[in-house]
Amino acid sequence: MSDPVVTRATVLAEALPYIQKYYGKTVVVKYGGNAMISEELRNAVISDIILLNLVGVHVVVVHGGGPEISEMLKKVGKESRFVDGLRYTDEETMDIVQQVLCGKVNKNLVATLNRLGGQAIGLCGMDAGLFEAKMLDEKYGLVGEIVQVNPAPVQDSLKEGYIPVVSTVAQGVDGENAYNINADTAAAKLAVALKAEKLILLTDVRGLLQNPKDESTLIPVVELSQVPELVKDGVIQGGMIPKVDCCVEAVRSGVKNTIILDGRIPHSILIELLSDEGIGTMLR
């Protein structure tokens, strides 16, 4: 028997206890960054999600679409503007956010999942009041803070065997506006509402690094009690702060653990969930 065949069998045998562990459990994946832009990485992520679904893991995909929104704004001659790292969203920008996230990005993801053998269904945060929000702060425009999650449409989709793909636009409770929602925040809130086993945030970095310039200094596990000290020491800084805040909130609210995972690594989701080698940073 050839070595590659033995290797494949060994990998499958190693995955078995993890498949048993996650069978019937819910895993929320926030999908974005390079893993969304590169066709090779996109196909790897999609195939990971389909495989997990086929072995009985309930996978929910929550996506952003920052680059696509910026591209569309550029096409209509409107400049992207950011305040404290959040996209300033006036009414015209909100129209484009809604069109791009709930339309193009969401349906393209659903189509790719279906084309590669999955059974996906697209949901917008406004469907059945999935996400309800109020204005976060006037300085950000129509950027919302989620005040209520109704997980029923996602749960119903999972019961029917579908892979729900959720875009992060919310229904306003303080007016007739729709709101633009940060995808990391939306994924964390949904994971809590679904009582998920795990929340995975796909990013463009290895995870939390002791030295941000050295990827070999990955911190594999962080206890919640360590987070304030890591912020103070500058290990958690910049754009990583809101990601970690989302993870902390999710774990404190009942999600077993959260993973900040490098979406640039092909099949990173499978490596993280179904092997002995964790490759991201776990917060627990």
From TrEMBL:
Residues binding substrate: 65-66, 87, 180
InterPro entries associated with the record: AceGlu_kinase-like_sf, AcgluKinase_fam, ArgB, Asp/Glu/Uridylate_kinase, Glu/AcGlu_kinase, NAGK-C
UniProt-annotated location(s): Cytoplasm
Single GO biological process annotation from the record: L-arginine biosynthetic process via ornithine
NCBIfam families (UniProt xref): argB (TIGR00761)
SUPFAM superfamilies cross-referenced by the UniProt entry: Carbamate kinase-like
Keyword Iron-sulfur annotated: no
Residue span, Aspartate/glutamate/uridylate kinase domain: 25-262
Domain of life: Bacteria
Keyword DNA-binding attributed: no
Name of the featured protein: Acetylglutamate kinase
Gene name of the encoded protein: argB
Pathway terms, separated by semicolons: Amino-acid biosynthesis; L-arginine biosynthesis; N(2)-acetyl-L-ornithine from L-glutamate: step 2/4
Swiss-Prot/TrEMBL keywords: Amino-acid biosynthesis, Arginine biosynthesis, ATP-binding, Cytoplasm, Kinase, Nucleotide-binding, Transferase
Catalytic activity, EC: 2.7.2.8
Gene3D superfamilies reported in the protein's UniProt record: Acetylglutamate kinase-like
Pfam families per UniProt: AA_kinase (PF00696)
Signal sequence annotation: none
Entry similarity comment: Belongs to the acetylglutamate kinase family. ArgB subfamily.
One GO MF term attached to the UniProt entry: acetylglutamate kinase activity
Reactions catalysed: N-acetyl-L-glutamate + ATP = N-acetyl-L-glutamyl 5-phosphate + ADP
Free-text function comment from the UniProt entry: Catalyzes the ATP-dependent phosphorylation of N-acetyl-L-glutamate.
GO cellular component, one term: cytoplasm
Site (Transition state stabilizer): 30, 243
